Amino acid sequence: MSLVLDFVSRTAADPTPYVRGATSSIGWGLLAAGAAVVAGFVDSMSIPARTKAFRSAMVHFGLMTAAFITFLTGYVLRKAEPLDRPVEVQTLAVSLIGVVLVLGGAVNGVLLAHRRA
């Protein structure tokens, strides 16, 4: 959602609501990620070590951790930018990288769920 709002902010006559919406979306997403970490950790406790499922879980955790750090970096960048201007190109790039990491982690998570089923 934040990436869409970022792109809209770059073409809107008044970018403020889009920039605020994207920043808020990222902030709430970071909070939700905390709950997801706890649930994922508890779920992963039943995966036997040294198996394909375990390795897949580690890849998933790595991708999602990288996405979290990327979005956290983007959030910090946004807080330093004025809200009445479109997001800067580097902030937009950070969001795009974060989305790619989340998508990779999500695909890996789906494959992991099917592998364990």
Task: Report what the structure shows.
- The protein is mainly α and 117 residues long.
- 80% of the residues lie in helices and 0% in strands.
- The protein is built from four helices and no strands.
- The mean pLDDT is 91.
Helix content estimate = over 70%
Quick check: average pLDDT? 91
Helix-strand category: mainly alpha
Spell out the helices and strands N to C. Answer: HHHH
Distance from N terminus to C terminus (CA atoms, Å) equals 30 Å
Tell the overall outline. Answer: elongated
> Biggest sheet, open or closed, and with what strands and sense?
none
Radius of gyration: 17 Å
Q: Compute the number of strand runs.
A: 0
Number of helices: 4
Strand content: under 5%
Briefly summarize what is shown:
The chain is mostly helical and 117 residues long.
Layout: helices, strands, pairs:
Blueprint: H1 2-9, H2 16-44, H3 52-80, H4 89-116
Keyphrases for this structure?
117 residues; elongated; mainly alpha; 0% strand; 80% helix
